[in-house]
Amino acid sequence: MENHHYYKYEQIEKISKSVIYYYRNLRNDITLPIDVEFIIEHILNLKLLWNPIKGSDGEVILAMVTPTKTQIQMNSDQMQMFDSVPNLERTVLSHEIGHFILHKLEITNPGHSYKRSIAKSNDPLEREAHQFAACLLLPRDYLLDFIRLNSKKIDFNGWGTIYFLAQSFGVTKTMLMLRLKEIGILSRTITGEFISQTGHNYGQLLV
Length: 207
Hints:
The chain contains eight helices and seven strands; from the N terminus they run ααβββααβααααβββ. The strands form two sheets. It has a four-stranded mixed β-sheet. The protein is an alpha+beta fold. α4 (88-103) crosses α5. The chain has two domains: 1-137, Orthogonal Bundle (Arc Repressor Mutant, subunit A), CATH 1.10.10; 139-207, no CATH class.
């Protein structure tokens, strides 16, 4: 990791905005949720495959990006997990997009894998890829506009708002709340609890 180029959050957000710019121009508009597969196939020109991926030592691998083969593989053995966790597939795909854009010069064969324990990883590549995924699926300007336009439904005084936003943008609750924290809509205590500006305590998320 000595030669790794570390990205600041602001840099990652700027890079994700350039992808959204091309996405919007190709589609003439943006409809929610962001079409991740369109970005993979029509902007990045990557192949998206579903194949079995075996982990070592009992590790569960959900996906793998291999820049030298210009492909993203999703683990077909984990369909049950993808089906059981809302928007997990979109999260994983966006994470792999992040690796391809930010780290493709650092990734060699056989590729870089997304493991089930990724959210707890201290690996800077994993952290940056997950931040990119959040910026891509929850573009700051579109998220703030959506909240403003739907102010009658959104009050951040309960889980209804979180479920509504997560469903509208096609993200996991965990990704949404971390992104809301980065934007400044939620704050986080030293014990990991998420607090809204109205004082509602959403508690901790295991990430």
